[in-house]
Design a protein that fits this description.
With 136 residues, the protein is mainly beta. It is 8% helix and 52% strand. It is built from 1 helix and 8 strands, in the order E-E-E-E-H-E-E-E-E. It is elongated, with a radius of gyration of 18 Å. The two termini are 20 Å apart.
Length: 136
Amino acid sequence: MRVRGKDVALYAGLEGENRVLLGLSKSCSLQVNCDMKEFSSVLSGRAKRMRPGRYGWSVDTEVVTDDTDPSGITFLTALCEGRRMTVSMSIEIPGSAVTKRFYGDVCVQTWKLSGAIGSMSTYTVTLTGDGDLLNS
């Protein structure tokens, strides 16, 4: 079974009343990267020897704006006030009852509002992880 875009959901907050689904999200991605450290020596020959270092993570999303969806302003306010927030991303595995959830604290790095004349506007947000990316 393939995981498709409709199987991925991004939420602001973790549980309860504070959890807000970004229901009109056009796209969403989670990126995890690792710094690589070289530990080559003269005995390594011409090839570099690498070892993983610390990792970082980020979430990018593009959301269609809607009068009923306050999340765009929530992200902009968090950026302007320098506040951290918690986000979670759920991935439903098709054909099973399994839902994988990744979550953690983030800082809003970029927020952009765009719109063409005669069409709905969208905003894009880049959220940079602050600390561990957790999963359940």
